[in-house]
Amino acid sequence: MNLDLTHEQELIVGMVRRYVREEILPLELNLDPDADEISSEDKARLVKKTKSMGLYGLDIPPEYGGPEIDLVTRTLLAIEMSQHRAGLYAPCYGTFGGAGLAQLFEATDDQKERYLYPTLRGEKRGFFGLSEPSGGSDPARAIQTKAVADGKDWIINGSKLWISGADKADFGLVFARTDQDKGRNGVTCFIVDTDTPGFHVRRVVHTLRSAHYATELQFTDMRVPSSNILGEVNKGFAIANDRLTRQRIPYAAGCIGVAIKANEMALEYVPQRETFGAPLSSRQAIQWMLVDNEIDIKQSIWITLEAAHKANQGLPFRKEAAMAKLVASEAGGRVVDRCMQMFGGLGVAKDLPLERWFREMRIRRIGEGPSEVQRHVIARELLGSSLR
Amino acid sequence: MPAVRLTKPWLPLAPTLAKLGGQLGVFQLADEDDNIIYIGYAGGNSLFGLRSAINQATSDIPTAAKVRIEVTSAYHSRFKELLMVHKADYDELPVCNADINIGKLSPN
After folding, report:
1. Which of A48, A169, A278, A291 makes a 20 to 30 Å CA pair with A142?
2. Looking at residue A62, what is its pLDDT?
3. Which of B74, B105, B106 sits opposite A210 (nearest CB)?
4. Is residue B83 part of a domain?
C-alpha cells in the first residue's frame, strides 16, 4: 500500500476540507449545540455546491450515477467531513448525499424501481432494522421477530430497538426469523413500507446522543408480500453481515475526523492558556497528552486506510475493518477525553463541541458492534471460524 | 418502558416562572382550558435555560396560562418526541408551533 496521497487525492481532500471550514463551521455558530439538521434552504444551497464539486452521492456506484472515487479516497473524505460539531452522526449535514441502503443495489429490478431509484433521487428514505431488545451484536441468535408464510405473503410480528431514522422513513429493511431451527440460516430480509398496517414506531429512545436519535419499532400482524424479500428466504444473515462489515470503515473514519479536530483545537489552545506564569504547552503533562493524541490518531488512520485499501482491492477485509472500528472508536474517545482535560472547565461546557463529541464518541464503542465483538471477529479470523 | 407523553400536572405560569432554574429541558404551554398550545425546549444556547426559554415563549404567546416542564439533557430528542406524540394524538402540531420536519410516531 502506497502511503503517499496522489495529487488527485490531495486536491479532493483539500476541496472538502475548505468546504467544511467555509460552509459548515460558520452555519454551526447559529445552531443549537445538539442540532443535526440545517435549514432546507441551506441544505439545498449546499447540495448544489457539492454537486458542482462532483462529489455528491460519493457512495453510489458509478453505474448508478455516483462519482468514480475509490474507497481509500472516500475514507479520506469521510475523515474530513466529520470535522465539525455534528460530524460524528451528521457529517456535513448530509449535503454530500449518500447511497441510502447499499443492500438495495443487489435487489431485483422491480425492487430497484420501487425503492433504490427513488432513494437515489432523494424521493424516499429507508432505515435498517436489525437490532432487537434481545440484542444486536449476535443477529443469528438474537433475532426473535418472526415471519410466517401465508399464501404469497408473510406475516411479521415482533419488535426492533435502536433503529435510526425509522420515524421519517418511507420503507425499511427488516430482518425476521423465518426458520426457528436454523440459527443464522433462518433469517430473511424484508423490504417493508412504513405505511403497512401493523407497522408502528412506538417511541424515541433517549440516549447520550440527543440528535439523530434511535427509535423502538413494533410489528403487529404486518403483512408483507413475497416480492418484498430482499435476496432469498433464510439468506438474510449474509446481507446483515456484509452491511456490518462495510459500515465499520466509514464509522472508523468519523471517529478519526473528530479526534483530529479536537486535537487541533487543543494544539491551538495550550500555547495561549497560562497557568502559574507559563503556557500550558510548557507542561510535560500536557505535552504527553498531545503526544498520545498524535499516536492514537496516526494508528487509527493507517489501520483504517489499510482496511479501505483491502476492500478496494476486492481482498478479504473483515479482520481489518473490525480492527479499524475497534482502534478508531477507542482512540477517538481517548483523544476527546484528553482534549477536554486540557481545556478544563471550558471542555465540558456546551460552548465548545468537545462536550457533544465526548457523549457521542462513547456510543461509538458500542454502536455497529461493541469493541468486544470486534475483538471476537478478529480472534475468529486469526484462530478459525470454529471459534464460538 | 418510559412514558412518551409529558404527564406532569399543569402549573400556573407566573408563580412557576419566578421559581424556575436554569436547567436545560423541554416544556409545554397550555391555555386556561389545559389545551397544549406550544411545545418548546431550553437548549445549550439558552442564556438561563428553562427560565429564559419559557420567558421568551410566553412573551410571544399571550394566551399561555399554564406550564409543565421536564428537565433533561436529551432536550433535542425529547422535544422532537413530544411534537410527534402531539401530532399522533391530535393530527396536528400545537397551534403556536411552527411547522418543522418531524417524523411519525404511533405511541401506545
Report:
1. A169
2. 87
3. B74
4. yes
B104 interaction partners in chain A (CB closer than 8 Å) = 167-168, 194, 201
How confident is residue B57, by pLDDT bands cut at 50, 70 and 90?
very high
- Are A113 and A121 in contact by the 8 Å Cβ rule? The answer is no
For the question of residue A294 being annotated catalytic, the response is no
Rounded to whole angstroms, how far apart are CA atoms A152 and A305? 46
Which tens digits make up the pLDDT trace of A349-382?
Answer: 999 999 999 999 999 999 989 999 999 999 999 9
- The chain-wide mean pLDDT, for chain A, equals 93
Distance CA A66, CA A61 (A): 5
Catalytic residue among A80, A216, A330, A368: A368
SS3 A197: coil
Tens of pLDDT, residue by residue over A187-212, are 999 999 999 999 999 999 999 988 88
The pLDDT, as a whole number, for residue A134 is 83
A44 and chain B: CB distance < 8 Å anywhere? no
Q: Which domain holds residue B31?
A: 11-90
Cell of A39: 435549514
The residues that bridge with A176 in the sheet, in sequence order, are A188
Average pLDDT (A29-50) is 95
Distance CA A200, CA B106 (A): 6
Q: What is the pLDDT of residue A99?
A: 63
Beta-carbon count within 10 A of A135 CB: 13
Total tally of structural domains belonging to chain B: 1
Q: Is B69 a domain residue?
A: yes
Q: Indicate whether A269 pLDDT > 80.
A: yes
Question: What residue in B sits closest to A40 (Cα-Cα)?
Answer: B101
List Cβ neighbours of A133 (8 Å cut-off, separation of 6 or more). A159, A161
Contacts of A163 in chain B (CB under 8 A): none
- A109 pLDDT above the threshold of 80: yes
CATH of the domain at B86: 3.40.1440
Q: Which residue of A has its CA nearest to B75?
A: A210
